[in-house]
Amino acid sequence: MRIIIFGPQGAGKGTQAAKLVEKLGAEHIATGDLVRAEIKQGTELGQKIQEYNDKGELVPDEIIIEMTKPHLSENESWILDGFPRNQAQAKALDEALEEINEKVDRVIGLEASDEDLVKRLSGRRQSEATGKTYHIEHDPPPEEGNEEDVGPFIQRDDDTEEAIRTRLDTYHEQTEPLKEYYGEQGILVTVDASKGIDEVTEEVMKAVGENK
Length: 212
Ligand code: AMP
Prior knowledge:
Helix content: 40-55%
Bound molecules: adenosine monophosphate
Number of domains: 1
Order of helices and strands: EHEHHHEHEHEEEHHEH
CATH superfamily: P-loop containing nucleotide triphosphate hydrolases
Structural class: alpha/beta
Number of strands: 8
């Protein structure tokens, strides 16, 4: 199954994608992770895209499309997270899938208010060791680290209030209109992401025809 998990930053795309990966045995293709990995490796490309990432701005389309494309044909089942983020990327995705005679089966649109999202994102901490995300209030990281997760637990460079606002503005301007695009194709299912994680997961599983 080829699934896009869609929604604003902080809506829980990564969390729900992980549940889908577990249930469906699909590959998780998270373009934000691809971007951060490239930056961490300090490649020439990584240096070029770091500034966009840190400011919360979109990396240019041709770069992100080139980075994403190889992953689409690697696996028959995937959960695409963080892509497409605008019309040009949605078109590029359709074209890349046409080349391999495939199409997107389902788009899951997670929805939450900006106010909730800013609260979630500014409290978010990520383990450098495992990549797992925590929230300082709702799901705090282990204090000194533990055997399963030694940390350190850091705030992402783009989880500052200013970068969060930029990312949400970009989402509303460029990404949200894609709901119409996928709605017209009859493959969009929207889910209220302001609820608790388990309730959201239940809805997400229903959207892909799986019971939890
Ligand atoms: P995310 O983890 O999905 O919030 O992505 C982190 C950052 O990576 C974004 O703020 C962008 O700078 C970059 N990025 C990830 N996915 C895309 C995309 N589809 N198009 C452009 N930039 C992206």
